[in-house]
């Protein structure tokens, strides 16, 4: 996807072989999947937009939250990958670099789920109904194309555009019925240029302890 125009330049949807799924199915544009840790840069950048800094610290240690629906014993107890925990108070910059779930959930709780949900809605990724703090770890479904569109604002200075598939339509005589050049997509401002830069900088790495 061109991050400045939202034009979809290429994608691989599936191998078309006449079997299931049907030939008109495109996983890249239609296949809803949980997005997992790819939501973390969106959450961390949202946190920066609330005034937190890259050196803001959260605890990487076990934590539990009330969860009246769908959780064992009525509590939500996230864990880091393979249960590894540092038991350290660390910067969110380092936590994102290491993709630590415990810090991520604490950060989501600090800024509030509604703040996160409002932002990802702006980015074309509405949260699932009834999703709690697990959304901060990617319990949200969308397609690869929509996820690419959500990441484009990191590159283009903070403007979101929905994916665009058609650039030109002509009839059988060659007359132009539609030309995207005459219909520019105005971006929705989701980050300031400064916050978009800081978010991209987080993604690029370079941990601070």
Descriptive report:
The chain has 209 residues and is α+β, with helices and mostly antiparallel strands. It is built from 7 helices and 10 strands. Strand 3 and strand 4 (75-76) form a beta hairpin. Helix 2 packs parallel to helix 4.
- Portion of residues in helices? 25-40%
Helix and strand run: HEHEEEEHHHEHEEEEH
The poorly predicted ranges are none
Rg over CA atoms: 20 Å
Which structural class fits the helix and strand makeup? alpha+beta
Describe the largest sheet.
Answer: 2 strands, antiparallel
Strand content: 5-15%
Taking strands numbered 1, 2, ... along the chain, how are they ordered across the largest sheet? Answer: 1-6
Count of separate DSSP helical elements: 7
The gross shape turns out to be globular
Question: How many beta-strand runs?
Answer: 10
Outline the fold blueprint:
Blueprint: H1 27-30, E1 33-34, H2 40-49, E2 57-60, E3 65-66, E4 75-76, E5 88-91, H3 92-98, H4 101-111, H5 113-122, E6 141-142, H6 144-156, E7 159-160, E8 168-170, E9 176-179, E10 188-189, H7 193-204
Helix pairs in contact: 2-4, 2-5, 2-7, 6-7
Task: Report a brief summary of the structure.
By secondary structure, the chain is α+β, with helices and mostly antiparallel strands. Helices cover 32% and strands 13% of the residues.
């Amino acid at each position: 996807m061109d991050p400045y125009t939202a034009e979809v330049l290429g994608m691989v949807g599936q191998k078309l072989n006449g079997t299931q799924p049907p030939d008109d199915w495109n996983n890249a544009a239609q296949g809803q999947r949980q997005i997992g840790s790819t939501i973390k840069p969106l959450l961390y950048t949202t946190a920066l937009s609330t005034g937190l800094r890259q050196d803001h610290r959260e605890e990487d240690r076990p934590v539990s939250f009330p969860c009246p629906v769908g959780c064992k014993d009525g509590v939500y107890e996230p864990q880091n990958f393979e249960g590894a925990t540092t038991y350290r108070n660390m910067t969110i910059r380092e936590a994102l670099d290491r993709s630590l779930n415990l810090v991520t959930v604490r950060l989501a709780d600090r800024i509030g789920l509604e703040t996160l949900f409002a932002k990802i809605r702006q980015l074309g990724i509405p949260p699932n109904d009834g999703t709690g703090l697990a959304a901060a770890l990617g319990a949200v479904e969308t397609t690869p194309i929509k996820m690419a569109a959500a990441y484009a604002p990191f590159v283009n200075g903070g403007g979101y555009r929905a994916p665009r598939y058609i650039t030109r339509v002509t009839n059988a005589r060659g007359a132009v019925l539609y030309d995207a050049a005459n219909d520019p997509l105005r971006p929705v401002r989701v980050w300031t240029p400064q916050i978009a830069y800081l978010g991209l900088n987080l993604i690029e790495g370079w941990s601070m302890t």
